[in-house]
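Regression test case RT-17, inverse folding.

Input:
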């Protein structure tokens, strides 16, 4: 089983080397390491070229982590792809444990993720119950929030061919939207041992850049309901979650006196409530 690791990065010369080192130190050798630079203006590319001549560097001019990851997927030479954000690190046995899981399943597993350790400003961060990692058919349990970290994923590229790649029109929640597409069709496997260290608190993290993350989840859910083939019960579950998120946004907008947002999301609420009513008839 040959693995291609894809690391998207933007202005992280000070962090990306730690990510690359964690890939190169895997107990199961990663066949191909691809770093996709997304218009860095620091010395990211120079640092990688000097320290890691074996690493393939691609440049993606269209800004956005989805574009960067998708370029890596398109250019990867192997069927099995693992993602790693440039501010995260893999534990040494991460890929070995995932490969063993795939082989044990007699190649019936196509999507496998792992547990993870969270660090915030160099301190261990406890995860809440809602962040518990899941396995099997997890679609319904993944509707409220993203339950799979891209840095933990090992995935067969057949799933991209069947269900598509990352949605480059979503500034954030692009992983949430793709995982919903995939988990609506196939089960996922889980390595319960933490195999990824996720570092938070960086000034340039996307979750800090945009307010109201539920706005992007709403956008993702709407796109799936409009353009993606789902079972009736899946649509009902998705609509219930969507309407709840819309209510949360409306409530917050009212508190802030943002009449424009209230008006927009009241329209959405009316539209999607009618869709749910029709499905229940």
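Golden output:
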């Amino acid at each position: 089983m040959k693995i291609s690791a894809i690391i998207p990065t933007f202005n992280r010369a000070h962090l990306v080397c730690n990510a690359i080192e964690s890939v190169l130190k895997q107990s199961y050798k990663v066949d191909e390491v691809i770093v996709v630079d997304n218009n860095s203006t620091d010395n990211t590319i120079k640092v990688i070229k000097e320290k890691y001549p074996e690493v393939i560097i691609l440049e993606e001019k269209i800004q956005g982590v989805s574009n960067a990851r998708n370029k890596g997927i398109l250019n990867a030479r192997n069927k099995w792809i693992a993602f790693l954000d440039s501010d995260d690190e893999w534990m040494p046995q991460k890929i070995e444990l995932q490969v063993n899981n795939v082989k044990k399943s007699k190649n019936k597993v196509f999507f496998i993720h792992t547990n993870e350790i969270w660090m915030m400003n160099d301190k261990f961060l406890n995860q809440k119950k809602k962040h518990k990692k899941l396995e099997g058919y997890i679609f319904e349990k993944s509707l409220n929030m993203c339950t799979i970290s891209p840095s933990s994923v090992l995935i067969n590229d057949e799933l991209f061919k069947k269900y598509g790649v990352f949605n480059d029109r979503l500034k954030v929640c692009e992983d949430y939207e793709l995982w919903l597409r995939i988990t609506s069709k196939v089960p996922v496997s889980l390595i319960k041992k933490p195999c990824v260290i996720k570092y938070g608190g960086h000034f340039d993290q996307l979750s800090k850049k945009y307010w109201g993350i539920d706005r992007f989840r709403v956008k993702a859910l709407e796109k799936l309901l409009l353009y993606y083939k789902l079972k009736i019960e899946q649509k009902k579950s998705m609509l219930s979650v969507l309407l709840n998120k819309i209510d949360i946004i409306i409530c917050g907008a009212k508190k802030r006196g943002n009449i424009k947002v209230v008006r927009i999301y009241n329209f959405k609420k009316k539209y999607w409530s009618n869709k749910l009513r029709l499905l229940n008839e």
